[in-house]
Amino acid sequence: MAIRGLMPLISRLATRAYYRFTVSGVRVPAEGPVLLVANHNNSLMDPAFVTVAAQREVRFLAKSTLFTHKQIGWLVRLVGSIPVYRAQDDRRLLGQNRNIFVAVHQALAEGAAVGIFPEGTSHSGSRLSPLKTGAARIALGAVRLIGRSFPIIPVGLVFRDRNSVRSEVRIVVGEPFDWSDLANRADEKFSVRELTARIDRAMRRVTLNLDSWEDAAIVHVAEQIWAAEHGSPRDSEATVSRLALIASVLQKFRSRGDAEWRSTARELRAHARMLQRMGLSPQALKEDVSWTAALRWSLMRFPLLASIPLASLALLVYWPPLAGADWISKHNREGPDSESTYRVLGVALFCTIWTLLLAGAAAWALGWVWGLVALLLLPAAGAGAAMVAEQRRLRWMAVRRFFVRHLHRLRLGRMRARQVAIAKHLDELLDLGMQ
Q1: Which distant-in-sequence residues (6+ apart) come within 8 Å of 210 by Cβ?
Q2: ∠ Cα 283 302 405 (to 5°)
Q3: Which of 77, 346, 367, 376, by CA, is between 20 and 30 Å from 217?
Q4: Burial 292-323 (b: 16+ CB within 10 A, else e)
Q5: Domain count of the chain?
């Protein structure tokens, strides 16, 4: 279907509208068979992110119950997903998986990119769930048709806060690993078990695995402090590597009941609270801005002020469908890992219906010409308003940071000294934890 070829573009638009994300790591081959394996914490947003990372059409395996789902079944079928039948859904249908494996093997043999979430289902856990053997079985089965091993590429999706609009997401495309020694091995059970273990190790290198979500805030602020004080690169791959290292070391101290863990956690929480009150990040705390630079920056962005009244009006016009989508997302039956999926789909559906209603009302009251004008201009006005609102939020935060820096110099000086001390403490912990 034609829409499948448009999925990389559609996926980028949908994810970019909701999140701020960066992609780093290796480049997925533009053609030829590829098996993409990713963690699964965010329902249908995860396939969209994997498609963005791949920059090509990807055929996904999805649990069979999604195909008959009242709200999202149409989308799962439309993008060419391949159903997988699970014992917990209906044991009587497990036999149909034989045909599914044949279809996936054939797709890979024809040079397709196939995406799979080896954990088996979307979940709210703070770490990878034990992997199912499906990905390994698919890869080993496809070898018989292709005649050789092919790239298995791990994709890590690290969310700062998956349900918050405009929150940060880091997508890391890991290195494909060698499994040619397993491709034609006679002992199939060993090959499946060993390849599953290799997939697990590859995925853990590009994901963040925590004992609980409560640790996420501490780990993220620790990484930001360390990166700010060491001038480290902020690309997704480097950031996720640092997050994983800090998480493993801090959790190592906690698991053995070390008092060092409790004092470090208190330090980080207190510093994070102070930064939040001041509207600063660890990097912003380290920086300083002169009055001249601030004035020049403000003058360059003056046109934004003129667009705020029109943008506010457009947002007010679209408030009903946006509020409806928000309500639907928070009351969905699938759980918190589906909240952003329902919000994105709800906004797309409700705003489309709302636009048609407004255009119809304009045509009825003022004539078909005005109806057509409304149909063309309203979506553009709504998208423009969202962009202005985002820019206004970012600009206001920047202006606020500038005045905070100049009105609270003594207080910020103490916070800077504290941040430097925390960074040194983290260095010591990392050195100890890695021994």
Answers
A1: 126, 127, 216, 219, 247, 251
A2: 30
A3: 346
A4: eebeeeeeeeeeeeebeeebeebbebbeebbe
A5: 3
111 within 8 A of 31, measured Cβ to Cβ: yes
Contact between residue 426 and residue 253 where contact means Cβ atoms under 8 Å apart: no
In this structure, the answer to whether residues 330 and 368 fall within a common structural domain is yes
Dihedral pair phi/psi, residue 242, rounded to 5°: -65, -40
374 and 303 part of one domain: yes
420 in a domain, yes or no? yes
Range of the domain at 337: 291-410
pLDDT at 242: 87
- Rounded to an integer, what is the distance from CA 300 to the centroid of its chain? 32
The reply to whether 120 falls in a domain is yes
Q: What is the rounded CA–CA span in Å between residue 254 and residue 260?
A: 8
Relative to beta strand 58-63, strand 82-84 is parallel
CB atoms within 10 A of CB 133: 16
- Condensed to tens digits (0 to 9), the pLDDT of residues 170-215 reads 999 999 999 999 988 888 899 999 999 999 999 999 998 887 777 8
pLDDT of residue 348: 87
The pLDDT value recorded for residue 61 is 82
Amino acid letter for position 304:
L
Number of residues written out for the chain: 435
Name the residue among 61, 171, 159, 160 with its Cα closest to residue 117: 61
Please write the tens of the pLDDT for every residue from 164-173.
888 889 999 9
pLDDT value of residue 315: 79
Which runs of E-coded beta strand occur in 11-86?
A: 20-25, 34-38, 58-63, 82-84
Q: Is 120 found in the same domain as 40?
A: yes
Distance CA 85, CA 61 (A): 10
Query: What does the pLDDT read at residue 184?
Result: 84
**What pLDDT is attached to residue 93?**
56
Tell me which DSSP letter residue 131 carries: P
409: CB partners within 8 A, 6+ apart: none
Q: Which residues pair with 22 in a beta bridge?
A: 170
Q: Which residues pair with 36 in a beta bridge?
A: 115, 153
Residues of the chain with pLDDT under 70: 1-5, 64-69, 71, 73-74, 76, 79-80, 85-98, 288-308, 385, 388-407, 433-435
